[in-house]
Amino acid sequence: MLDITFASSINALILGLSIASIFLVAALGLTIIYGTAGVINMAHGEFIMLGAYASFTMQNYLGVPFFLCIPLSFLVVAVIGLIIERSLIQYLYNRPLDTLLATWGVSLVLMQGVRLIFGSDPKYIQMPSFMSTNIAIGDVSISLFRVFVFAVAIALIGAVWWLFYRTDFGIKVRAVTQNKEMAASFGINSSRVYTMTFALGAGLAGIAGSLFGVLNIVLPTMGMGYVVEAFLMVVTGGGSLLGTIIASGVTGEAQSIFAFIFNDTFARFLVFILIVIFLRFRPQGLISAGGVRR
Amino acid sequence: MAGVLEIHDLRKSFDAAKVINGFSLDVTELTLQCLVGPNGAGKTTTIDLISGRQKPTSGSVIFRGDDITGLSEHEIARRGIGRKFQVPAVFRELTVHQNLEVAYSRETRVFRNMFHFTVPGCAERLEQVAVEVGLKDRLSVMAGTLSHGETQWLEIGMVLMQNPSLLLFDEPVAGMTEHEIGKTIEMLNELKKNHTIIVVEHDMGFVRQIADIVTVMHMGQLLAQGSISDIEKDERVREVYLGAEEEHA
Amino acid sequence: MAAMEKNIYHNKALQWGVYAVFFIALAIIPLVQDDAFILNQFATYGVYGMLALSISLCWGFGGILNLGQGIAFGLGAYGMAMTMQMQSQDPDINPIPPFMLNNALEELPFFWEPFWNTSAGIFLALLVPTLFYVIFGGLMFQARVAGPFFAIMTLAILSALATLFIDLQPYTNGVNGISPPGALDLGFVVVDPYSSVSYWTVFVLLLVSTVCAKLLTQSRFGLVVQALKNDSERVRFLGYHVAFYETAVYAVSGLIAALAGCCWAFLTQYVSPAQFDVGFSISMVIWAAIGGRNSLIWAIMGAFMVQGAQSYVGDEFLNSWVLILGLFFILVVRFLPGGFAGLTESLLGALSTGGRRRGGDVPVDVSKAGTEGA
């Protein structure tokens, strides 16, 4: 314990920010879908996985540069999300547990489908070489790509905030979230709002996938690891955008600090236990999304 | 007559909004008290605060001499306060018979109930209550398939199975047909002979036919209290509430 | 009860009759089939059946969707494997399991000590998971965490446990898991996994847990539990401590899953973090959903059907099989929320009322039907 120096603590904090930004990018789409439509989308992890494979395919077979792959993955996965919402989810909005199960089925199908097409061997997404250099912040050195992920997280928060609080679409979304019947009487088509939100959430998972595919290897099963963590952020945050941001920040830092004191796995376990205890005293999460969902 | 329920200076606020603002009330044994008031007066919130669904910000609720303020729902229910909800809450996937059986909550311990299929006295009580609420012939029906009026009666029956000494009814005739309302009035007038009852209602026509005492709430406070004729003469009540009511009365 | 005469599906005597036929059929299998490998495979199906039963009890009757039933299953399996492992160690000559020596442990960890004694070991294999469920369930239900949120928390705890068991390499042998060298020795009998003894052991345990679960659903407790699945708030206002009931039904289902874990360990003589695999826990939910979560016996049959079909198509087509299973599962959730049980119920309902259906008395909607199910 004597090696807790100033530099190493700062290092842990910065690493925590990086972990937090990953949690956040993973959880953002999920939060939007849950917060708006109350849908627990268990296929979110597979949407992330699809984003990674979309980037991989575009980069390897079409020669699309990496930075262009990110927005294109957004589009590809958003379209897939749109199709799934129209063909399945829209029939299940009043049955939250069943949406959970149905989307689980979707995740199985997506995972196996990708495995049949691409095989089970790992794929890799190349990032531009300058991204792999480390940069020094004081005594701490961190890879440029992690800084990039952090920047993307900030940019996405900004974009989502702008979309929800500064556009016509955002007003409709919030109206539907608050009171579906009332919104309908003002001529807002809630079913359309749900569809668009679902596609948007899926698209955000696509972006997450193209980033995570660089951080880690690309596998059909890669989504599973992210979906549980992402859900914990949504549950802890209470389903609101701000809640998810705070939850990601706090758990990211906590995990990094515990990992610094103990080790990675135990840190993860400890964070999970702390979340359970937290929910015991605040079951609605940090900042609960409007409405009376429980 | 002995006091059953005493509410002292009850307050409840959500953020800045003071929903209940210093409300006090005494309920005496074997009376049917109607709680009336315009929308947003805090009637349902008051019922929530008595039955433990919400916790008051300050003030106290005394039931038969015991302070029950802030206790949880099941503890309050066990002390003998039964509640019927505004939107009828029954177990839709269970039969009427099973609904009433569950409501006979004399024995609430988990392990006891694991090893018992029946509770003594349940069958007799069930028979009695089914007759009282007029569902004798509907016992084998799934509660989800009952008509709206029957669902309301079933919930009244469930509250009766609990055998509470104070009954809280939140809008028991909401959505009922004229005929059903008539039957419910008979039912309530029969019940008040040996129960203490608080009914939340805003239909004065209905209140006129059942109430012993009428309490008018306005903006989370007590506005007036008295017999129905006193209330109907009261100028302030007329102003905030009956004015609108008079037109279609 | 006059209540149930309309649809013979709800006839309690008939339900018990179906149970009897089901278990008699299972009892005949070892009399006509003496291939040890096939018997072992059938016994594994019995384990799956117990797991589906536990899900049906908790989710179908209690309305508590539990995506982390692998918690109890895995803990039970580890407990049993530890017991079996210690049976092959000798306190004087080699008191420490080989994998611990490979991980440079010089002493038996304290929490392995009780497993010297077989009875204590088995007792712990059941007690620890049940206690875990009581504590975790108690915390969550007291806080009124319910529905999808509870499901996600079970999933999170499950995946945390999996990583923990991998991480505690010296005590659990990490990813490799524990493979006890010998069969379980109960003193009066050795439960050889490839013999009818193991089949009968699983059979009896499945029978006992099914009958107990069925009785439980018919008890006052079962009635309250079914009521709180409908509307837990209403139950609360009737004077029941809802969290206690939820914790109890969750813990009982955990106990059954732990029992299944014990069977799994002596049937395969192997346990690894794969038992905590999230995918496996979800499979249990899929079995129960396809069979019909509102019916204990249909849930068990759901496990038999899905796992049976899976081994029938073989490893070659396993990839396409999972794809088909996923699609089938989606269809069941979308169009047949009551699974095969719900389907049977509606069919029998249509048959028994025939042309003389009284207006609205019989629910035709399968999604609502079947709380009183077989």
Assign a percent range to the helix content of chain C: 55-70%
Low-confidence stretches of chain C: 1-5, 355-374
Q: Strand count, sense and closure of the main sheet of chain C?
A: 2 strands, antiparallel
CATH homologous superfamily designation of the domain at 3-90 and 165-246 in chain B:
P-loop containing nucleotide triphosphate hydrolases
CATH level-1 class of the domain at 3-90 and 165-246 in chain B:
Alpha Beta
Radius of gyration of chain C: 21 Å
Major interchain interface with per-chain residue totals: A-C, 43 and 43 residues
Fold and architecture overview:
The complex is a heterotrimer of chains A (294), B (249) and C (374). By secondary structure, chain A is an all-alpha fold. Chain A has one domain (6-281): ABC transporter involved in vitamin B12 uptake, BtuC, CATH 1.10.3470. Chain A is built from 11 helices and 2 strands, in the order ααααββααααααα. In chain A, α3 (66-87) packs antiparallel against α8 (190-215). The mean pLDDT of chain A is 88. With 249 residues, chain B is an alpha/beta fold. In chain B, α3 (96-103) runs parallel beside α6 and α5 packs antiparallel against α6 (148-161). Chain B is globular. Chain C has one domain. Chain C has a two-stranded antiparallel sheet. In chain C, α1 (12-32) runs antiparallel to α8 (196-218). The two termini of chain C are 15 Å apart. The A-C interface holds A 40, 88, 91-92, 95-98, 100-102, 104-109, 111-113, 115-116, 224, 228, 231-232, 235, 263, 265-266, 268-269, 272-273, 275-277, 279-283, 294 and C 65, 136, 139-140, 142-149, 151-153, 155-157, 159-161, 163-164, 166-167, 278-279, 282, 285, 289, 319-320, 322-323, 325-327, 329-330, 333-334, 337, 367.
Q: What is the compact description of this entry?
A:
The complex is a heterotrimer of chains A (about 290), B (about 250) and C (about 375). Chain A has about 290 residues and is an all-alpha fold.
How is the topology of this model organized?
The complex is a heterotrimer of chains A (294), B (249) and C (374).
Chain A: H1 6-37, H2 44-61, H3 66-87, H4 96-118, E1 134-137, E2 140-143, H5 144-165, H6 168-178, H7 180-185, H8 190-215, H9 222-237, H10 241-261, H11 264-281
Helix pairs in contact in A: 1-5, 1-8, 1-9, 1-10, 2-3, 2-4, 2-8, 2-9, 3-8, 5-6, 6-8, 9-10, 10-11
Chain B: E1 3-14, E2 17-28, E3 32-36, H1 43-51, E4 58-63, E5 66-67, H2 73-78, E6 81-84, H3 96-103, H4 110-114, H5 122-132, H6 148-161, E7 166-170, H7 178-191, E8 196-200, H8 204-210, E9 213-218, E10 221-226, H9 228-233, H10 235-246
Parallel strand pairs in B: 3-8, 3-9, 6-7, 7-8
Antiparallel strand pairs in B: 1-2, 1-4, 4-5, 9-10
Helix pairs in contact in B: 3-6, 5-6
Chain C: H1 12-32, H2 36-61, H3 70-87, H4 98-102, H5 118-142, H6 147-167, H7 169-172, E1 184-185, E2 190-191, H8 196-218, H9 220-237, H10 242-268, H11 278-291, H12 296-313, H13 318-335, H14 339-353
Antiparallel strand pairs in C: 1-2
